[in-house]
Write a structure and sequence with these properties.
globular; 279 residues; mainly alpha
Amino acid sequence: MGAITMQTARPYLAAFRARFQLMLQYRAAALAGFATQCWWGAIRIMVFAAFYGVHAAAAPISLADAVTYVWLGQALLALLPWVADPEIGQAVRTGGVGYDRLRPLDAYSYWYARTLGWMLARALPRAALMLLTAGIVLPLVGLGEWAWQPPAGLTAALLFVPAFVLMTMLGGAILMLANVIVAASLNERGVNAILTPLVIVFSGSLLPLDFFPDALRPFLHVQPFAGLVDIPFRIYFADLKGASALQGLALQTGWTIVLIAIGRYAMERMMRRLEMQGG
């Protein structure tokens, strides 16, 4: 059974690896993205420092956790599904999607694997540079209070591993829904215009969700975008621990399964209606 499973998964792993290796070639883009994210990370930390200097008692997390939250967010920014995969729209407009329909593969799994490769290849080099700069260099030069702190203990570190995996899978599921809409509409601008603010605000990327009014928190903590930033990051510095951390992981898992099912259904309907030019 294991051999059959690996044989079945091999084409999708190859698609993931090919897209991942292709995107790693864009080193200048990675460096530019890293520099930009460092700059905005520093600005956000200064804003938090000003807030904590006046209203520290009202803050739901410590300043050190807020600083780590910012650096984590900047490091993993490219994992957020705020823009549709540009290759999908191009494939539909040029007719290249016809090759995907002819392959003896599940089209959703194939696109999903390539989308994950695109996301991770853009995120991991920047995350490594961010960790080196914010986690190692800043403490060495005497700026430890503004540095990226390690996980809050071994348990938090171990729980962050599945939280990161689920964060990536959930982001891929959301992005696949956007990709299906792009393939159906032949235009990614409208999708991106709606998706970007939704992801930035409701994931907690702009502001940790616990900073929002009390009346909104019950909704914000259970909606799908919370699994992209708020849940994994709070697990990282043990704001979520024990049963709360397990509930967060369950929420990530549940939304991932639901959105993959919705995306698969939507893609099957889209593929049945899709017509190649001239026939």
